[in-house]
Amino acid sequence: MPPMKKSKKGKRKSKDSSKLKVARTRSAPPPLPPELRGLDTEWWYTFLNKHAESGQAIPSDEGEAFRHFFRTSRKTFDYICSIVREDLISRPPSGLINIEGRLLSVEKQVAIAMRRLASGDSQVSVGAAFGVGQSTVSQVTWRFIESMEERARYHLAWPGQERIEEIKATLEAVYGLPNCCGAVDATHIIMTLPAVESSEDWCDPAKNYSMFLQGIVDDEMRFIDIVTGWPGSITFSRLMKCSGFFKLCEAGNRLNGPVKVSAENAEIREYIAGDSCYPLLPWLMTPYEGRNLSAPMLNFNARQKAARLLGTNALTRLKGSWRILHKVMWRPDKNKLPSIILVCCLLHNILIDCKDELLPTVELPNHHDIGYSEENCEQVDPNGKAMRENITAHLQSYEAPKLLC
């Protein structure tokens, strides 16, 4: 079943609805002009005092308290405001006022939207914390998402070859894997549905209604490709095959960089690492399965697992930071949910690009997909099998000099 198509006026529809394709550059975020800094800080102190008076445990340091509620430093928050400022100023909808009757500032609108995404709390609860109504939270959050989706897309895209070479060099230095360009994993975004929309199409193996998110990440756990919008009832391998990324790789238009020649003169092409729920392909390396594996096979599995956990850890961090994706979403609009997921991924990348550190209390203590049994895809491409053997032999020769030393 194809994903729900999103209808939005005034915007061009993507040709491939199975993939949210975005573009980004590696340049640093532009500095915020002085005239845009500190335009409204009153909302923050009002918000902070309200939580302090309620007896809620919050960090004593103001900077950490800000990151606790909004996941970013104030500097990164200002940068995010600069991205959406023009939209939030130029198209103010009616009714966006607080209880004092004043129009909400850009900073307060961004804070409302980011608190909603970060906490996953109800619109009523978020509104009460900011002194606004439920409908205002809904309007503000969606306007923020629309603006970020359009204006922040450069924070999520497939890297250029120069950056790919940096990723490959890092992954080989850390894990010993030659020509590895990243890792892939997927997670379920759980939701409740009205009775009229409940169907087996959206019911996943854990008996939840859910939407899939597949992410490919680099050496810094930055998302460089995502696919969402597909129902959680399909398998991981089916999700991969439905993606635009799969089609590009199969056509030779992605993971098509320079081939590495191993010590045994075997060719090793570019690839990503994934779990056994994915098919073994020339550009997708999965672990060896079965008992009585040889020492070289076990060595490959250990290194491949360490690399592919980048994808798992990225999704765990994503859901920990933006809890709206971790909690059960109450009757979401399935046409809008992919946009919410995309913007959370953009915010995840912005934190990395701005070198923001998450508070330890934010990250999830467990796996991002608790309650789901492991899938095993038995599809093995002969060329993929040969590639895995080439890498395994290369790792064995790579280890030999170290053992002699």
TrEMBL record:
<keyword id="KW-0539">Nucleus</keyword>
<keyword id="KW-0479">Metal-binding</keyword>
<dbReference type="GO" id="GO:0046872">
    <property type="term" value="F:metal ion binding"/>
</dbReference>
<dbReference type="InterPro" id="IPR045249">
    <property type="entry name" value="HARBI1-like"/>
</dbReference>
<dbReference type="GO" id="GO:0003682">
    <property type="term" value="F:chromatin binding"/>
</dbReference>
<keyword id="KW-0540">Nuclease</keyword>
<dbReference type="GO" id="GO:0035102">
    <property type="term" value="C:PRC1 complex"/>
</dbReference>
<feature type="compositionally biased region" description="Basic residues">
    <location>
        <begin position="1"/>
        <end position="14"/>
    </location>
</feature>
<comment type="similarity">
    <text>Belongs to the HARBI1 family.</text>
</comment>
<feature type="domain" description="DDE Tnp4">
    <location>
        <begin position="184"/>
        <end position="349"/>
    </location>
</feature>
<protein>
    <submittedName>
        <fullName>Nuclease HARBI1</fullName>
    </submittedName>
</protein>
<keyword id="KW-0378">Hydrolase</keyword>
<feature type="region of interest" description="Disordered">
    <location>
        <begin position="1"/>
        <end position="34"/>
    </location>
</feature>
<dbReference type="InterPro" id="IPR027806">
    <property type="entry name" value="HARBI1_dom"/>
</dbReference>
<dbReference type="GO" id="GO:0004518">
    <property type="term" value="F:nuclease activity"/>
</dbReference>
<dbReference type="GO" id="GO:0035098">
    <property type="term" value="C:ESC/E(Z) complex"/>
</dbReference>
<dbReference type="GO" id="GO:0016787">
    <property type="term" value="F:hydrolase activity"/>
</dbReference>
<dbReference type="Pfam" id="PF13359">
    <property type="entry name" value="DDE_Tnp_4"/>
</dbReference>
